[in-house]
Amino acid sequence: VIVAGERQVRSLCPFCGVGCQTVFHVRDERIVRVDGADGPANQGRLCVKGRFGMDYAASPQRLTVPLVRREGFPKRHDFGRVPDDWRDAFREASWEEAMSLAASGLARIRERDGPRALAGFGSAKGSNEEAYLFQKLVRTGFGSNNVDHCTRLCHASSVAALLEGLGSGAVSNPVSDVRHAEVIFLIGANPTVNHPVAATWIKNAVDRGAKLVVADPRRTELARRATHVLQFRADSDVALLNAMLYTVIEEGLVDEAFVRDRTTHFDDLKAGVAAFSPEAMATVCGIDACVIREVTRLYARSRASMILWGMGVSQHVHGTDNVRCLIALAMLTGQIGRPGTGLHPLRGQNNVQGASDAGLIPMMLPDYHRVGDAAGASIFETLWGVALDREPGLTVVEIMHAAMAGSIRGMYIMGENPAMSDPDLSHAREALASLECLVVQEIFPTETAVLADVILPASAFPEKTGTFTNTDRRVQLARQAVPMPGQARQDLDIVVDMARRLGLDWRYAHPREVWAEMRLGMESIRGISWERLEREGGVTYPCPSEDDPGHPVVFIDRFPTPDGRARLVPTQLVPADERPDDDYPFVLITGRLLEHWHTGAMTRRAAVLDAIEPEATAALHPDELARLGVASGGRIALRTRRGAIELYARADEGMPRASVFVPFAFAEAAANLLTNPALDPDGKIPEFKFCAVRVEPA
Ligand code: SF4
To answer: What mean pLDDT is predicted for residues 115-129?
Structure first.
């Protein structure tokens, strides 16, 4: 609908990895309405966040002027929500003064303590161009690989397993491919809440006859559509999945030709699952052996079976093992390389795929060239004209430990909020506060920003133009719809300014120039020109040349491994790092709500979304609430070995007994004060989906 006085800007939704295309209706330089556009991921659909969430950008709480910490003002880190008087710690500064202080603070540490005393967190909410330039700044301006972002907290374990097994960390098939699937195996994911438009494709597929298997410790909304619901015990993923692998082998469901021609290490896998019969694993995972066998047959025998998973799989100390099992399941049965098959880790943030592709991770350069690999490094040494550190950098949680230990002294954080998103927040906030120089580039006074020495006011999503890569590997264009408030600047311009002040001769006048440079170094996107994106709306990589249409389905006849084959990797049972006991008898599971995205910095400043879900709540089974003597809506206290919070209880029949689910978007009851920083050894992802907690009436 065209309304007089309004203009329309075609762009994207910034609230999850589905990558819905939008039309922003703009009046008086504000977004007044959002419609779904006919993009490949959404075909006009939007969820409540996409439709009603964009007013966050016009919030009066936006940072509009550079701020510098007043001399000698202490960094208080023992707060719950950001204190009302946070601004007392800062004074306004000119851009020149703020940038000069920030750059000189970081440069001083680099000169005195060496490049590895600095670190940077970029953002999966920013564009590909921002992610690329940020990691380039850390690698060439700071001089180390200490650069990471929130992929470490969501799918790092998935990427580790996929790179190891298949040679590529991205999805094999787009979400919408569920329409071609006969069987959809959804595990550890709640798309109705976290990827709502993706959930609609799954529902449509079920309506057309696809069989849906939902495996999750919590009975989620999509379970109502499922033919089989496997409400397995939290932390027993490997037991369940290895029992399925055992069944495939024992019952002769192996695609022999596929395994022979396209995989390696089958004998290792076969030996590895020999002790995992469904009968033996039934008591471990809580799923009847007959059901495990039935579901396995369903998956293995169908014409096309597709696996989708979320952070219920990845956020464990055995997250990489969980994904190794899923990969093996698809490989043994040949359920990959065709429409309606394959492996799809549902990406959380809107550009976590693109930021990872762009090298915003400490062990990989752009396009997943390992930092220690001479051939890969030489591509970027030539392109950037500098010698690169060949040692992998530290990951998100490791950087916090290094800050506490004093070996990291300075950080530059662009658009991330580790003071809300990291596990064991008390420790993370203390680590951030201990830094000699913390520069935070943000749009709001987040829990992280108020610990900074210098705050640089930046651009919100609808104020910038750039490319974003959705969970399907599809590169799409976001276009600036509204101006920035006050003195706020484009993130890209701030990073370029910082680079120049650190001695780099950078000149980029527009994001398309950054994209052009990225294409020179990254073969996967070489054929995706800016003009093509404007013309076609989106192109799915790998796309090596401009006449290549892009490839929504990959691994059709080979894997991008040195020998073209997938590697099968056996796994064993690894228990959660912290099991319930008499003192802490419940299991804590953290995650998101439909209305609130991640740490809530954006959605809690969106009027409609915050009106729908204004309070922090914890979901428990009604029987547990009755046992505690607490009514739904009553206050409860949660305590772990790391911290305590109070919040409202919400009865949820889908919750397993002796478990509690807490969203991590609410600063006043920050779930991550409770969580365990124990890491998966391969993906270095924290165990957000399992730790021991005590629940009491408040
Ligand atoms: Fe936005 Fe994701 Fe909702 Fe689509 S599904 S409208 S991308 S939050």
So the answer is: 97
**Which residue's CA is the closest to the ligand 1 atom numbered 4?**
20
What's the gap in Å between 19 CA and the centre of ligand 1? 6
Mean pLDDT of the chain: 97
Residue 80 in this model has a pLDDT that exceeds 90: no
Residue 667 beta carbon below 6 angstroms from any ligand 1 atom: no
* Cβ of residue 602 lying under 6 Å from some atom of ligand 1: no
CA of 136 to the centre of ligand 1 (A): 29
- Binned at pLDDT 50, 70 and 90, residue 360 comes out as very high
Cα 439 off chain centre by? 23
CB 633 within 8 A of CB 563: no
> In the 8-state DSSP scheme, what is residue 233?
P
User: Considering only CA atoms, which residue is closest to atom 3 of ligand 1?
Assistant: 47
Mean pLDDT across the stretch 492-498? 98
Q: Is the CB of 18 under 6 A from ligand 1?
A: yes
Beta-sheet pairing, 369-370 with 364-365: antiparallel
Task: Report the sign of the C-alpha dihedral through residues 242, 335, 524, 497, in that order.
Answer: negative
Extract the tokens encoding 627. Answer: 């046992």
CB neighbour class for 238 (10 Å; exposed up to 12, middle 13-18, buried from 19): buried
Q: Which atom of ligand 1 is nearest to the CA of 16?
A: 2
CB of 359 closer than 6 A to ligand 1?
A: no
From residue 657, alpha-carbon distances to 119, 624, 653, 666 in Å are: 42, 7, 9, 24
What residues have CB less than 8 Å from 643, skipping those under 6 apart? 424, 425, 426, 673, 674
Task: Dump the DSSP string for 559-576.
Answer: -SSTTS-EEP--------
285 has a pLDDT exceeding 70: yes
The residues near 656 (Cβ < 8 Å, ≥ 6 apart) are: 217, 218, 231, 233, 234, 587, 621
Please name which of 531, 503, 535 lies closest in space to residue 519, comparing C-alpha atoms. Answer: 531
Amino acid identity for residue 160 in this structure: A
Interface predicted TM-score of the whole assembly (ipTM), two decimals: 1.00
Q: Which helix (H) or strand (E) holds 639?
A: strand 635-639
Centre of ligand 1 to C-alpha 50, Å, is 5
